[in-house]
Specification:
The complex is a heterodimer of chains A (309) and B (431).
Chain A: H1 3-14, H2 26-51, H3 67-73, H4 78-112, H5 118-130, H6 133-144, H7 151-158, H8 170-198, H9 202-210, H10 215-243, H11 247-252, H12 264-273, H13 278-301, H14 305-308
Chain B: H1 2-22, E1 30-31, E2 38-44, H2 54-70, E3 74-80, H3 85-97, E4 104-108, H4 112-118, H5 130-135, H6 138-144, E5 154-166, H7 177-189, E6 195-196, H8 203-214, H9 235-250, H10 264-273, E7 278-282, H11 285-292, H12 295-298, E8 301-305, E9 316-325, H13 330-352, E10 355-356, H14 361-364, H15 371-379, E11 383-385, H16 392-407, H17 413-430
Parallel strand pairs in B: 2-3, 2-4, 6-7, 9-11
Antiparallel strand pairs in B: 1-3, 4-9, 5-7, 5-8, 5-9, 5-10
The chains are: A mainly alpha (309), B alpha/beta (431).
């Protein structure tokens, strides 16, 4: 039923002789408005307020000022932080999307063939997702440990290969952190892709088979176009999630060596909790919010209209 | 019949009381009876009944049991901190400012100035005698004393950094940086991975290294608390001290992985695994190594003062833990002071062999008469505490970032030092 039809409905009922009016939306909207306002909107408004002050965590009243924005956005390290954030986010999102889709395709295909172990495969992938970020970071730190007894390097030595400077080489450290984040986030993408794959109308595949399409053609011309809305929604979700990731990085590399793996969320955390600069941290939080919203809008622009509605 | 009824009632009463009698006096988050009318919340580190070291856990359990038996009607709610001390302390500072701090808490000595400046601590002066306060080492007494002359925490333990070595591979204690490099290279030839030290984004990276700068007479901040570590008078000393570490890595005397180390446990692991013969560690690790190694292996290990640019230009960083009160209830402040006095000021030092902050306690407890602890106590004489200024945490953060860039060869030492100095000055201006 369209919105206009819904609006007409009371007048039809009114034909019975009673002067019916639409019930007030406030009673059922108020709980949502209160919860959203109290736990989401109020903190956001407070962050905006702090951004226009010079508040620190060290006490003092603080004063309202516009200079915090300029001072933070002119910081020389910010360009590097944003670049690291871009590489980390892009690498993680692409990796999680591609591997998540690959696993989902394997699971769906295995289910069609009634192969043993599909549930085990799905569950195994989900285990990484339920591991808390800090714990995941510690697990990967043990694996990437470059000591003679470190996890991955020990395996490489067993295979006669040279050890890798997983975390001490600034260029490799970034990809080590991306790898750990892909490991953690792939399960979510797999679940989204799996649900979307199951929703594809099987007659489309039957028609493609009738036309003699190969497996690769079915993937390119049936599966991927059908998955487009799910892929875009998933990318919005995992992009925002990745932009906010700092717990796994703080446990794995602490943002180092130097600033090689210091993403915007970790930098914001450091500015507030190590530099005690609440106002600057608020400006950086607004920057993160703007980036997340901007990317979400870009992705949403590619959504088919009916999905956006 | 009456007798039977009486016996049954008595038995039932006794059984009813049994849970209360059998209730554990110490649980993972409580000390004392759960129905005690007075409760004090104590936020603590691993220095307590939940210590990961079984010997220490047992020792603390006894100390806490004795303490709570001395204070009937009280229970302590224990809140454990995580290992990320900087984050924990910053969060606690924010809670204190909002009026939600625990009643009593462990405060790391290097952030104590921040808590004092925020005005969130209660005076402990009424609970300690002038004589006890006078016995504190000067740098400790200065650290806990506020501008009004009151003491706002009790600094109960101190520590220092030393150079540990496997005497089978490095028989003589290196006295200079050149000695240390030669010894580390010799250990590499013997199949070891060289000298280990903290080099990642971690407070220990700054603190363990600072002795190399202080030993040359370098100053981090001036009298006003402004960073001066790379001004005209100090820059050369600072660059030399950074280059010492850089040279260790570039020459192969230290493995590149030092840029990823941010945990003293990594050194214990490497020493126990026999993969290193030299590392810069804390005095508390001596006991940990003793607990972790077989006696014949432990016998090979010794320690010495950190080497200096010359043998007579040596220093080391001294830190430690304090206990401070946040509660506005005088009874809880008094209880916090009592906990400090009865558990931490002496007994806990002896239990963990944590160096006391009062000269008289070295004579009181036999454990501090051991050769190792006497050597640590001597080294304290050249020890230097981190400056009690608001900008120190950011100076430390910048030194950690700088060290990462230098150790990985990502930047020249001079450029990295200048960046760190400018960022520290900017932070000082903001605070």
């Amino acid at each position: 039923m369209s919105a206009s039809a819904a609006r007409r409905k009371p007048s039809i009922l009114g034909a019975s002789g009673r002067q019916n009016r639409l019930p007030s939306p406030y009673p059922w909207l108020m709980p949502v408005i209160l919860v959203m306002g109290l736990f989401y909107l109020y903190p956001v408004i407070d962050v905006f307020r702090y951004a226009f002050t010079d508040l620190t965590l060290l006490g003092g009243e603080g004063h309202y000022t516009l200079s915090t924005f300029g001072n933070v956005l002119r910081r020389p390290e910010l360009a590097q932080i944003l670049w690291v954030t871009f590489v980390f986010t892009a690498g993680s999102v692409i990796g999680q999307q591609v591997i998540g889709l690959a696993i989902a395709l394997v699971v769906v295909r295995a289910e069609k063939r009634r192969l043993f172990g599909t549930t085990i495969l799905r569950t195994t992938a989900l285990v990484a997702w339920v591991v808390p970020g800090i714990a995941g970071g510690i697990i990967w730190k043990m694996l990437f440990n470059e000591a003679p007894f470190g996890g991955l390097n020990s395996l490489l030595r067993l295979m006669g290969m040279a050890p890798v400077q997983w975390l001490s080489d600034p260029d490799i450290a970034m990809w080590s952190v991306v790898l750990s984040n892909i490991w953690r986030g792939t399960a979510f993408s797999m679940v989204v892709m799996y649900a979307a794959l199951k929703a594809i109308d099987p007659t489309l595949y039957e028609a493609a088979e009738m036309d003699g399409a190969t497996a690769r053609q079915k993937l390119a011309f049936v599966t991927l176009p059908q998955l487009r809305p799910a892929i875009l929604v998933n990318m919005i979700l995992i992009t925002i999630q990745t932009l906010n990731t700092f717990d796994a990085i703080i446990a794995l590399s602490g943002g180092g060596p130097g600033r090689a793996t210091e993403v915007l969320s970790l930098y914001t955390f450091n500015v507030v909790f190590r530099n005690y600069d609440l106002a600057a941290g608020s400006v950086l939080s607004i920057l993160m919010l703007a980036i997340s919203l901007g990317l979400a809008l870009v992705y949403a622009a590619f959504l088919p209209k009916e999905d956006r509605s | 019949m009456k007798t039977t009824l009486f016996t049954a009632l008595a038995a039932a009463t006794a059984l009813g009381c049994l849970p209360a009698i059998a209730e554990d006096l110490i649980t993972s988050d409580r000390v004392g009876p759960s129905d005690a009318p007075n409760k004090m919340v104590f936020r603590m580190t691993g220095d307590g009944p939940s210590s990961t070291d079984p010997t220490w856990a047992a020792g603390y359990t006894k100390l806490y049991t004795d303490f709570i038996n001395n204070h009937p009607g009280w229970q302590l709610e224990l809140q454990m901190m995580t290992g990320d001390i900087s984050q924990e302390q910053a969060r606690m500072l924010e809670q204190a400012k909002a009026g939600h701090a625990p009643d009593c808490a462990a405060v790391d000595s290097f952030v104590l100035p921040l808590f004092k400046a925020a005005g969130v601590l209660k005076s402990l002066s009424p609970y300690f005698s002038k004589e006890e306060i006078a016995e504190l080492f000067p740098f400790v007494r200065d650290g806990v004393t506020g501008k009004d002359g009151q003491i706002y925490a009790w600094w109960w333990s101190t520590d220092l950094r030393v150079l540990y070595r496997n005497t089978e591979i490095v028989p003589d204690a290196p006295e200079t940086w050149a000695d240390a490099k030669a010894a580390a290279l010799a250990s590499v030839k013997a199949g070891m991975e060289g000298m280990l030290f903290n080099g990642s984004r971690y407070e220990g990276t700054t603190f363990d290294w600072l002795g190399n700068f202080w030993g040359q007479g370098g100053k981090l901040v001036d009298e006003a608390g402004k960073p001066v570590f790379a001004d005209a008078a100090n820059r050369d000393k600072f660059v030399k001290a950074v280059d010492y570490y850089r040279d260790l890595v570039e020459s192969g005397a230290a493995p590149k992985r030092v840029a990823t180390i941010g945990n003293y446990d990594d050194f214990n692991a490497a020493a126990t695994a026999g993969s290193t013969a030299l590392f810069v560690g804390g005095n508390w690790q001596y006991r940990q190594l003793q607990n972790a190694m077989e006696p014949e292996e432990f016998a090979k290990w010794s320690f010495s003062m950190l080497p200096g640019i010359t043998a007579d230009q040596r220093s080391t960083g001294t830190g430690g833990w304090t206990v401070a009160a946040f509660s506005s209830d005088p009874k809880k402040v008094e209880m916090c002071a009592a906990l400090t006095r009865e558990v931490y000021m002496g007994p806990a030092n002896a239990l963990q062999e944590q160096l006391p902050t009062r000269a008289d306690l070295y004579d009181k407890y036999d454990v501090f008469k051991s050769e190792a602890n006497q050597t640590f106590a001597k080294a304290l004489k050249v020890g230097e505490a981190r400056p009690g200024v608001l900008v120190y945490p950011e100076i430390s953060n910048q030194i950690q970032i700088m060290m990462g860039k230098v150790l990985t060869g990502a930047e020249s030492t001079e450029a990295a030092v200048d960046e760190a100095f400018k960022a520290s000055l900017d932070a000082y201006a903001r605070l």
